[in-house]
């Protein structure tokens, strides 16, 4: 099981390298909400990369709850179908046979390729290499924000009115939080939150009013980096369109329930 976990981590890192925004770093703990990007990489691997149909009987994409158990519970044993799917994901797609078959179908290479073709190929390779170096240099100087997550409060928890919201992000100076009142169809956006040198950010925020009618109401939290539109902090927006604001980077969505007004920390 230890080798399987390491194999899944290694395979997920290949997705991070290609798209760090969609597949950020996360903690392999008991919070099943953390595993949503990993579950999405399973779907990408089998349904898009390998071309399996969602109804394929031999494939079972593990849920976030299953993945959390797989990484935190040494006594947990998944079903054979899920275990086979996880092992196949960790090993990656088999490509060698496809390459050999393509070479056979193409036939032998010409013994004397035309000089013009060789020159064009060398020029194309040089151009691609130069563009790649420029992109790598730009990213080294101006790395993109990544790994934005909310670590506190945890998903589906009951929280007091005065509450601490905390998270982590890489290569970003500020973060803003959108708080959505699902029950009352309104939302507001916090002021920019400064990110510490270690990537951790934190803000104390009041969730709902002091009225007892707010107890038991449902809210959603989401963090953003570099919102596309300017939102004055502290304003309450009376109607929710169903679409989160556009931004360069967004975190996972945290569902919470307002509890008593007394601080519980």
Structural commentary:
- The chain has 265 residues and is an alpha+beta fold.
- It has 3 domains: 2-91, no CATH class; 109-141; 146-258, Immunoglobulin-like, CATH 2.60.40.10.
- It contains 6 helices and 11 strands.
- It has helices at 2-18, 36-49, 64-72, 80-91, 96-106, 115-141; strands at 146-152, 157-159, 162-170, 174-181, 186-189, 193-194, 200-206, 218-227, 236-237, 247-250, 254-258.
- Strands 2, 4, 5, 6, 8, 9, 10 and 11 form an 8-stranded mixed sheet that branches. The chain has a 3-stranded antiparallel sheet with strand order 1-3-7, with no helix packed on it.
- Helix 1 (2-18) crosses helix 4 (80-91).
- The chain is globular.
- Mean pLDDT is 83; it is low at 94-115.
- The chain crosses the membrane at residues 120-142.
- Keywords: Membrane, Transmembrane, Transmembrane helix.
